């Protein structure tokens, strides 16, 4: 499965996402070490929600066997981050879990006009919320970390009693998380709270917002049940797994930027290699006019979110910049790529030239380009212009690929 579509038309909670992923076929084995570390158990059962058979997950105290939803000590962002840091996770899962908690902390800080460091979680700091966050990431990894696509999320409607009083739905934390993420929400379909802050933060961090379910081939479908039952609606999250037809792959990226006016050309020239070695996807250096009419440069780096911190450190060290801007919730669409080669007969010798092909997720060709280093090597061997070798190689490629003409 290349893609998962999270159909949260009845909202979502962390335990519902866990249930849907397990129902889809995720491997539950990684959850055992997390459960042991947190002294909890993931209890799974099959339930019926208005005629839909679904997987229900409940997080219970390992000793008492009682549900711990929302119960436990109040914790700060640093407290929860420390707990996650002590769990048996791989680095990507750990960083993503911390990023989800950071989103929750930033949302609470915005609501209460304070800093994330001063935020004290109530329900979100409980062990079951940590178990939900970490468990979802582990189950996704067991499925091969497919792309997660998120159509508009149902929030329900009405009011809910919270730690600080009665508030209209969606909950304030949900609206803050959504506003910072690019996710979309819709009201209804019942007058109850349907979308929890934990689920919103998880989907904001791992998902790509879309308007509707895309054209796709379906491999598997999983249903995760919520605790409540409604007379007119099936209280489930549905996750559809398959391949999105004819589309480009969408992935999360971070964009780092800084303006400099006192960095030498030698250092600027070396940033491509230095930052690429730190994990950057792409590095652009753009001339611009800065304050006091000084000529300077905008350095823009596209990076995977997990490498953004390390890349920012390298950028600061190499340039001496005093500040780096980061756009965290950004996506890019990228074509699939493969490499082939064509044979050119030049001066009675046969030379291989490497061609890079691009295509959509379902293999529909988009185009091709000659790898410059390969063409340049052939040009040097045959004493011909590189442009001529490139033109000949592309011509041969399209001759051999009638479908692309």
Walk me through this protein's architecture.
By secondary structure, this protein is an alpha+beta fold. The chain has three domains: 245 residues, no CATH class; 84 residues, Transcriptional regulatory protein pf0864 domain like (Alpha-Beta Plaits); 69 residues, mk0293 like domain (Ubiquitin-like (UB roll)), CATH 3.10.20.300. It contains eleven helices and 20 strands. The strands form seven sheets. A five-stranded mixed beta sheet has the order 11-6-1-13-12. Strands 15-16-14-17 form a four-stranded antiparallel beta sheet, with helices on one face. The protein has a three-stranded antiparallel beta sheet with strand order 18-19-20. It starts with a strand and ends in a 5-residue tail after the last helix.
Helix content: 25-40%
- Please identify the structural class as seen in this structure: alpha+beta
Mean pLDDT: 91
Report the β-strand fraction as a percent range: 25-35%
How big is the Rg? 25 Å
pLDDT < 50 stretches: none
Total number of strands:
20
Distance between the termini: 31 Å
The number of domains:
3
Largest sheet: 5 strands, mixed
Which word captures the global form? globular
Helix run count:
11
Strand neighbour order, sheet with most strands: 11-6-1-13-12
Brief synopsis:
Helix content is 33%, strand content 33%.
For this entry, give a set of tags.
405 residues; alpha+beta; Alpha-Beta Plaits; Ubiquitin-like (UB roll); 5-stranded mixed beta sheet; 11 helices; globular
List the helices and strands and how they pair.
Blueprint lengths: L2 E5 L6 H11 L6 H8 L1 E10 L2 E10 L13 E2 H9 L5 H22 L7 E2 L5 H16 L4 E4 L2 E2 L4 E4 L2 E4 L3 H8 L5 E2 L10 H10 E3 L6 E10 L10 E9 L4 E12 L4 H13 L4 E8 L5 E9 L4 H12 L5 E10 L1 E11 L2 E11 L5 E6 L1 H11 L3 H15 L5
Helix pairs in contact: 1-5, 2-5, 3-4, 4-5, 4-6, 4-7, 6-7, 8-9, 10-11
